[in-house]
């Protein structure tokens, strides 16, 4: 290995001593070239995620939270417009089938039931997620409670969309917590979203399942949603920890520039502006990618596995892509799996690949559409 050097063999002993002092003092007075630093760390992180580095990036003297901020600065500067998501055509054929496992670069999505242990076995293949960010259904009927566009119509969730009794929903949450507890390492964090109607049941299920509630965060939206007496302008996020070890803390009271509180201010998907209605039509409780990305950066390191047992429209997937984590999603509804894949493909320009057949999502989609057209011609 060669190292660039400047040979200064013309200096006197006194000048050498002065140079030693000046060399260190000038470094203190200098500033980083932020753009160049971002490029270097981004390239190193790509190599690290591909397994091509045999060292940790903290040997540079920068800690994980600092690296996150440096790399994320470029993407934050580019995010001047709201997220836009095309509304799925209910008449279009669904590409994904139950039991499908899709590979999306460093990420995976499995179309299956979050209550079944086999879903996690298939998805994780022995991996241990460092953290969980998930947004389970709230057992509230979507139609009549969530507005979108002019007709307000929404596809109901595949489960817990108002059809469960209180006791059934409590049992559902307990089963979910048990699955998540088994996946986490000691000290792992599980961030689970819920609305005000069922936050009590979620907290009770988490504690009964062996998790410690270490905080309760509030997503403070820009505008209120639907409601009777009061329009709901917030959602809640339980911050659970699996006991047995300290959790990762990348905030450290703002030590590295991440000044975070338990009130998270992000625009809601029903805000007025381009793309907001499209987001809402796509998935009634879709979370902003930026919200999930910040949450992920708080308690995990780059390259860590992040699990989402209710993948929905793929906010956790996009957030993991953005922050250099590896997403592992389970989603019961094949139509939402398709949505998440298409959002990731649009974000990255890459193509998802079926884990079994090796066929790309686009080619599989083309074949499915062609078959549907042939069947329609023969009707």
TrEMBL record:
Q: Which reaction does it catalyse?
A: a 2'-deoxyadenosine in DNA + S-adenosyl-L-methionine = an N(6)-methyl-2'-deoxyadenosine in DNA + S-adenosyl-L-homocysteine + H(+)
Principal EC category: transferase
**Origin: domain of life:** Bacteria
Which Pfam families is this protein grouped with?
A: N6_N4_Mtase
What the entry lists under SUPFAM superfamilies is as follows: S-adenosyl-L-methionine-dependent methyltransferases (SSF53335)
Q: Which Enzyme Commission number(s) are listed?
A: 2.1.1.-
Gene Ontology process terms (BP): methylation
Q: Gene3D superfamilies, from UniProt?
A: Vaccinia Virus protein VP39
| Stretches assigned to the DNA methylase N-4/N-6 domain | 130-341
Q: Which GO terms describe its molecular function?
A: DNA binding; N-methyltransferase activity; site-specific DNA-methyltransferase (adenine-specific) activity
> InterPro entries this protein is in?
DNA_methylase_N4/N6 (IPR002941), DNA_methylase_N6_adenine_CS (IPR002052), DNA_MeTrfase_ParB (IPR015840), RM_Methyltransferase (IPR001091), SAM-dependent_MTases_sf (IPR029063)
> What PROSITE patterns does the annotation carry?
N6_MTASE
Which UniProt keyword terms apply here? Methyltransferase, Transferase
Tell me which family the UniProt entry assigns to this protein: Belongs to the N(4)/N(6)-methyltransferase family.
Protein's name according to its UniProt entry: Methyltransferase
- Taxonomic classification: Bacteria, Pseudomonadati, Pseudomonadota, Alphaproteobacteria, Rhodobacterales
């Amino acid at each position: 290995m060669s190292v660039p050097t400047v040979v200064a063999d013309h200096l006197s002993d006194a000048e050498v001593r002065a140079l030693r002092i000046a060399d260190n003092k000038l470094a203190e007075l200098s500033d980083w070239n932020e753009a160049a630093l971002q490029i270097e760390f981004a390239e190193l992180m790509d190599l690290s995620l591909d397994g091509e580095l045999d060292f940790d990036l903290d040997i540079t003297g920068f800690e994980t939270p600092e690296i996150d901020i440096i790399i994320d600065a470029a993407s934050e500067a580019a995010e001047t417009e709201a997220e836009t998501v095309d509304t799925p055509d209910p008449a279009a054929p669904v590409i994904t089938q139950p039991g499908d496992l899709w590979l999306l670069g460093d990420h995976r999505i499995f179309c299956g039931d979050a209550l079944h242990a086999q879903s996690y076995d298939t998805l994780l293949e022995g991996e241990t997620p460092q953290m969980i960010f998930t947004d389970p259904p709230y057992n509230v009927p979507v139609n009549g409670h969530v507005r979108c566009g002019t007709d307000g119509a929404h596809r109901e969730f595949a489960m817990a969309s108002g059809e469960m009794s209180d006791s059934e929903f409590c049992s559902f949450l307990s089963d979910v917590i048990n699955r998540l507890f088994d996946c986490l390492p000691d000290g792992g964090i599980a961030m689970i979203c819920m609305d005000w109607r069922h936050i009590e049941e979620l907290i009770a299920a988490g504690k009964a399942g062996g998790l410690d509630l270490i905080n309760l965060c509030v997503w403070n939206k820009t505008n209120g949603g639907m409601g009777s007496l009061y329009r709901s302008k917030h959602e809640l996020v339980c911050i659970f920890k699996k006991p047995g070890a300290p959790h990762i803390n990348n905030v450290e009271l703002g030590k590295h520039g991440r000044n975070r509180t338990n009130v998270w201010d992000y625009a809601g998907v029903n805000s007025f502006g381009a793309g907001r209605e499209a987001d809402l039509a796509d998935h009634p409780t879709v979370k902003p990618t930026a919200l999930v990305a910040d949450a992920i950066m708080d308690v995990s390191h780059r390259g860590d596995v992040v699990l989402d047992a209710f993948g929905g429209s793929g906010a956790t997937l996009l957030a993991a892509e953005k922050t250099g984590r590896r997403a592992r999603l389970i989603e019961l509804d094949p139509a939402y799996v398709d949505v998440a894949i298409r959002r990731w493909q649009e974000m990255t320009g890459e193509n998802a690949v079926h884990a079994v057949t090796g066929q790309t999502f686009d080619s599989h989609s083309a074949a499915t559409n062609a078959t549907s057209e042939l069947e329609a011609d023969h009707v």
